[in-house]
Amino acid sequence: MRALVISDIHANLQALEAVLQAAPPWDEVWNLGDIVGYGANPNEVAQKAQSLGGVIVRGNHDRACAGLADLEDFSEAAAEAARWTQSILTAGNRNWLANLPRGPLQRPGLPLQLVHGSPFDEDEYLASRGRAHAVLTASAAKIILFGHTHIQGGFATNGEEDFRLVPHFSSASEADWFELPVRRGAQYLLNPGSVGQPRDSDWRAAFGLFDDAQDVFTWHRVPYDVSEAQRRIRRAGLPDFLAARLVTGQ
Questions:
Q1: Are 46 and 58 in contact (CB under 8 A)?
Q2: Model-level pTM?
């Protein structure tokens, strides 16, 4: 089976459409959450996520934009975007977001978990090797697919050594990919990166493809119409910072 792994779309319709157009053939979608928030097309993106189906984990922005979380821990721009999203979501999309399941979720027959932050805290940012080691040690899963950080890459351990995993691309502007063989006896924390708001200094939309038959996880980057995404954010009256950051991938 080949799974398209996406995360942190953040209501960026242009980025999502580019990903779906560029992605190799897949059998199922695994969506790691934060479908809405920040971007200007929450209803369109929520509808697209529903039509794609597959396994969907809720993210912290999904929870907040559905009115299920306090915004006090959000940045000023994030909170403003969440309130704006709450104001324009249809009742159907708000209800759908409110009922998304909390991770970790499992895919029957596969030794993996799907989470937004971590298996133990959906709001945790897994960014350090030490914390990654603790999570992997506490989990029986061979692979944990996570999002939330907006940083493509991950961590691995063979039981003796820990490794940070960083995809290396030959292009900084065109569609590109990087393959990671999934080795027997190792454990992995793998982040497909953010579709709609990358923060790893690469502006291109990010996603992953997991092939369980070949035991390969492939990181992908694809260019998209950033100018149109920015135009829509500004037209909606959202903070300009949310538009400006799309160009830098920060």
A1: no
A2: 0.97
